């Protein structure tokens, strides 16, 4: 401990600023060393004299006008009307942290809303001049009722179809949701070819393949899936393979995605397929449900 | 709970208890009676808008802190203006009036010696002995650390005591000559 620090401790002792531990240390030193004791006593005496002189120091007082003005303000604080007026007059620096944060949050919200409307107006004014390429969802590849011999696991058939003149697998990355792109190879095209698909959301004209046989399921009305915005922005193409049932009314029932190139397309494909209408399968003159129908929907960008 | 309930009485009580002490502190910081009154008045007006529940248990410290901030903010602004004025006015004049000198002569020795201390030392000593604040409270008001307050207090008191002893010795020497 330096002598300076020791002096400082004595001053703190005289002013009652020491912790109990330090206080007992100083008192012990005072007891053991008369010099320390004298120093403390002299300090106390000197401080008392200083305190007296400082207490006697002259100071200004409030003028009557100022005192009255303050009294009037204090009175104002005690009435409801005055309180309301005070709140309105309240300077910004007197607001609490919560109120200030509230103001900031309010300003931020107002700015966000303003930006929203501005953007909305800009989008409206830009109608018809979009330079983005229009996304296109390709139509049906396959509509295939299940054949008993084809229900065997697809993996075991893969080598066989590879050997055949099968179409090449898609080049888009395969997503984690399905067993793989080998299902594309398995399915032989039975339905109308993609490039002759009729406009979306319309009743399809009679196909050369109609009237339906017991083994075919022909869509008579279909809706184009909405191209997922995120996929369009990333220039992502792909496909979704869905298995479903055609009920006796020709409606799509229980669609399940069995594989897809990327799960980003799954939802759009299923939602669109649910709106499709098929010609129900007829057996012995009666419409029956067709289970295990699979379809593959392609998602392609027009300029890709 | 309505924070305004009984606020009028409370404000008056706070004013009666602390206004004079606050005014003296403000006067020492500004060196000008009118500026001191203005700063103290502004402090009480701010108290009017303050949340009573938040400041009630430390109102004295709150008043001194706010008053100090008002004075120092104003000083910062005026500093630039003074510079401009000094540039505009050619030469200078002695602004110390005779009455100020007379006032000084009537002050005690220790108060005279106080003027030789640094502003920080004067402030912590006055806050302690005129307004009875602890080291911690002084640290809160001035923005200094507690150890810094302790150091300034000690060195200030030491300098005062030394000067006081020298003064006593001079007086004794004079008395011996006579």
Task: Describe the protein's architecture and organization.
The complex is a heterodimer of chains A (304) and B (178). By secondary structure, chain A is an alpha+beta fold. Helices cover 42% and strands 17% of the residues of chain A. Chain A has helices at 3-14, 20-32, 34-55, 64-76, 80-89, 97-125, 154-163, 182-186, 229-233, 266-273; strands at residues 135-144, 218-221, 238-246, 252-260, 277-279, 281-283, 286-288, 290-301. Chain A has a four-stranded antiparallel β-sheet with strand order 1-8-3-4, covered by helices on one side. In chain A, strands 2-5 form a two-stranded antiparallel sheet. Chain A has a two-stranded antiparallel sheet with strand order 6-7. In chain A, a hairpin with a 2-residue loop joins strand 6 and strand 7. Residues 1-5 and 141-215 of chain A have low confidence and may be disordered. Chain B is mostly helical and 178 residues long. Helix content of chain B is 79%, strand content 0%. Chain B has helices at 7-30, 33-49, 52-55, 59-88, 98-106, 109-114, 119-129, 135-142, 146-177. In chain B, helix 2 packs across helix 4 and helix 8 (135-142) packs across helix 9. The A-B interface holds A 7-8, 11-12, 15, 17, 43, 46-47, 49-51, 53-63, 66, 69-71, 73-75, 77-78, 83, 86, 90-91, 93-94, 96 and B 4, 6-9, 11-12, 15, 19-20, 23-24, 27, 33, 36-37, 40-41, 44-46, 48-51, 54, 103, 107-111, 125-126, 128-130, 134-135, 150-151, 153-154, 157-158, 160-161, 164.
